[in-house]
Amino acid sequence: MDLIIKNGTIISPTETYKADIAVRDGKILAIGSEFPEAGAKIVDAAGKLVLPGAIDVHTHLAMPFGGTVSADSYFSGTRAAACGGVTTVFDYPVQRKGNTILGLINEKKEICAQEACVDYAFHCCITDLNDGAILEEMQKAVEEGITSFKCFFVYKKEGMMVDDGTFAKLLLRAKEIGAMINIHAENPDLIDLKIAQFKKEGKTSPWYHYLSRPEFVEAEGDKRAIHWAKNLEAPLYLVHMADKEGLEAAITAKTDGYDIYVETCPQYLEFTSEVYKREDGRNFVCSPPMKGQESQDALWKAVKTGGIDTIATDHCPFQSAEKDWGKDDFTKIPNGCAGIENMYPYMLAAANEGKISFNRAVELCSANPARIFGCQEKGSLTVGKDADIVIYDPEKDFTVSVATMHSDYDHTIWEGKQFHGYPVMTFSRGRLVYEEGKFVGEAGWGNFVKRAGRGK
Ligand code: URP
Ligand code: ZN
Ligand code: ZN
Ligand code: ZN
């Protein structure tokens, strides 16, 4: 035995029970009691919860975007992940138009092999089919364990947008090869129309970022994506869902038996569009923007009742000076916020307050992401799985501040957020990587997670 976690309360999506966990060679060897302790590191988890590490299936590390690059590298982003109880990070490499995707994935794998502090996987963003060559390459990507691809309905000037025809071809190809398409759904033409109108009227504060992408703009994108997926009978994953109308359409489609999944993010559960009226409103600029109270209430309801499948962060922070580019023009603000270190504490604190159960928090942040995206070694504390384990102290109080976070950004939208209950240890494949506020892992520890295709 390398590690024994004793006396803790283990949380799975369906059970809460007291048992010890024995770990050997990075795997969970046994769950029970009275294991032989000789030579093992012993962790006494009395009074604590023992949880599977979170899987953040939506991050943008070192991403060229909005005229700059997102603030966290693969090192600092995965370091922050470890300190927030996240043991697997999915990144979204973006295909440069005309280029291959396998080349991009290999580039990212090489960087992560040097830098990643926890395990990592990729969904590849496709921006150009290269006359169909990419549809061929997708098959090879699946064989290499990249079993999901992303499309953007927006970001035309950034060279990332795809049209409906491309989206449809990708849905069909993904279905054929056991993969899935993830979609960023908003309507680009409505956004452009609104932006042009606001610019003409001299309305340039961050509040107009929200008003140029309000509820119906996202709902149109969500419903269009759902419509295509239903009619092509292809699986679909809606990323960063933030509006009520789109959410309800997705839930109806799911109830009707379609292979559709919904993700939301902690920022949409915590903040409403009111933040864009604040002095520091530009720091909250992300796409889709935070929505009104009605949407937030609908998101919470779906978190509680099962309509939402996963919680992920869309971690994409930028430095204050970069956010300041948009002081007098919201269209110049790089889109994205921080969250990788805050997601699991946020959802677990919601459980600690009784808003949801700890079982549901674990389902949303670990078990469902693993199941939906084919991480067969992850997502639960079960014999034979990777020993990705978080010890959570339900009595520890913690206040977020940029100084105590482990990212490379200089501000966070979570500044001042208070949590009752906080992770105190994170193990990545049995290795301690975070303890009591300190990162104790190392760059290069993380492994690539080769994922199974759908139906495997
Ligand atoms: O504003 C955001 N969300 N930035 C990151 C890119 C994306 O749309 O997910
Ligand atoms: Zn997006
Ligand atoms: Zn994103
Ligand atoms: Zn308490």
TrEMBL record:
Any Gene Ontology CC annotation: cytoplasm
InterPro entries (UniProt xref): Amidohydro-rel, Hydantoinase/dihydroPyrase, Metal-dep_hydrolase_composite, Metal_Hydrolase, Metallo-dep_Hydrolases_sf, Urease_alpha_N_dom
EC number: 3.5.2.2
PTM description: Carbamylation allows a single lysine to coordinate two divalent metal cations.
Domain (Urease alpha-subunit N-terminal): residue spans on this chain: 1-33
SUPFAM superfamilies associated with the record: Composite domain of metallo-dependent hydrolases, Metallo-dependent hydrolases
Keywords of this entry: Hydrolase, Metal-binding
Residues with N6-carboxylysine modification: 150
Domain Amidohydrolase-related: 49-433
Co-factor requirement: Zn(2+)
Pfam families named among the record's database cross-references: Amidohydro_1, Urease_alpha
Gene Ontology molecular-function annotations: dihydropyrimidinase activity; metal ion binding
Protein's UniProt keywords contain Ion transport: no
Protein family according to the UniProt entry: Belongs to the metallo-dependent hydrolases superfamily. Hydantoinase/dihydropyrimidinase family.
The protein's name in its UniProt record: Dihydropyrimidinase
Lineage, top ranks: Bacteria, Bacillati, Bacillota, Clostridia, Eubacteriales
